[in-house]
Design a protein that fits this description.
The complex is a heterodimer of chains A (304) and B (249). Chain A has 304 residues and is an alpha/beta fold. Chain A folds into 2 domains: 216 residues, Rossmann fold, CATH 3.40.50; 59 residues, Peptidase S8 propeptide/proteinase inhibitor I9 (Alpha-Beta Plaits, 2-Layer Sandwich). Chain A is 34% helix and 27% strand. Chain A is elongated. Chain A starts with a strand and ends in a 14-residue tail after the last helix. Chain B has one domain. Chain B contains 10 helices and no strands. In chain B, 44% of the residues are buried. The chains are: A alpha/beta (304), B mainly alpha (249).
Amino acid sequence: MITVEGLTKKYGSTVAVDNLSFTVEPGVVTGFLGPNGSGKSTTMRCMIGLDRAQSGRALFDGKPYSSLRLPLHEVGTLLDAGNAHASRTARNHLRWVATSNGMPVKRVDEVLEIVGLQQVAKKRVGQFSLGMKQRLGIASVLLGDPRVVILDEPANGLDPEGIRWIREMLRHLATRGRAVLVSSHLLSEMALIADSLVVIGKGRLIEQCTVDQFISRHAKKWVVVRSPQLGTLVDLARAKGMQVVTNENTAEVHGVESAVVGELAAGNGIVLHELSTQTGSLEDAFLEATAMSVEYHGRSEAPE
Amino acid sequence: MIATIRSEWIKLRTVRSNVTTAIVATVISLAISLLSVTFMGESNIDSGTLPGLIVGWGPVAVLLIGVIGVLCITQEYSQGTIRLTLVATPSRLRVYLAKAVVVATVGAALTGAIVLLGNVVGSAIIDARDVPALDSNPDATPAFLAMILMGTVVAMLGMAIGALTRNPPSAITILVLWPLLVEGIVGGLISLALDDDVARWMPFQSGLISLSLELPEDGFGRWGSLGYFAAWVLFVSLIAERSLKRRDA
């Protein structure tokens, strides 16, 4: 498992990561969610010692990354799929990575097969599509069969098929008891991949919870009604202090359960053609949760 | 450490531009020396001719070897692989040392190949021509040894400059302008001001002096000159290693 404790990283006077603490448990996929520029990549770089944090630390099964002698056997990291030299072949790329941690070349061929790149193993990485590069990146993560996996925006730029492949790969790793941390700025993507969430904004922790908790806490819900006597129903609801938005044939009632609207209609003999609960999009929930912390929040300043 | 060195060796030889640079470094100076002994007037060939040509074109080979040193680290930054390197080997000192061992060995191997091939093929060419039998030149062996050591030291200098700038063009520019321009200007100005020849205090010039067959009277001697240059390279390397350790990757 991963424990991040009070991590702080400043670039000059800009605070990129601000006293961030969270844990990543084995056996689940933890989504690391935040708007672009919220400090996800910086946090990951600090966790594995590429960037120096001013304070705080990250522990992998109790040990800091820098103390791992053969780190690829314990932590698999994919930061940027472009981290391969364009003029090396895929196989040679994985060979130097494997060799640095004492793994045999046989292991390179194994992971090439797992990620489905054995056909193009002798092609230069420069000729790869983004999807193939991501697969190569995943291959380098799998080399040491690590207990902890960290991936930064692995679904970025992938087609739906590629995203499904990544999702299945991460699910598979989690089922085998690995601790998986995967970042994204898209909640819809996370909702498909992750079980648990670490949500940050402006480098600060907003919350750590399950995906379902996050959605039920932040996604808006409202009741949609359709009725031949819509005008009467709307007046009654407003009289009860409910918030109602009327459309052409329907009305949206906010802040109450559908049962309340149904009972109100029945009690007054109003015929309903539709009574349903709608949920706002995941993106809206995410924006609402992080609205306060988005760094470049659009402000509407009307000139006087 | 052995695993890191092996990994660095795979990295160096699996990029085509590195291999091309190595071949160019070897072939250019070798070809010029061999063509010269082929077409030179027979009466001008003496026991110092072939060794003189080999060490005379040595600086060209040595500078190109320095470029390999530059590339081995700057291409990691330009291609982003430095992150994967440091993720795989968190000890930055170990990464630096492993790279240094690899480029220094490559530097020695390439200059060694130039010396060996130059002598074997060059002597065969001279033997085939109508030249009276030549004595062996007593200064040749130490000069050849100095050339091989220069290949090692300049490879490490290139790497140190590369680690500091992290950018191939600027590192190569510094590496090439240092001996060709900077030391010439600085040395020239100081010489004018002090009315004294300070060339021997210029690090790169001093290193190149060690390649001469006939050493200047007032210098530090062959090994002194080379040692003085090596001390400078060690100094730059220490700064470079410190920079690699301190800066974010």
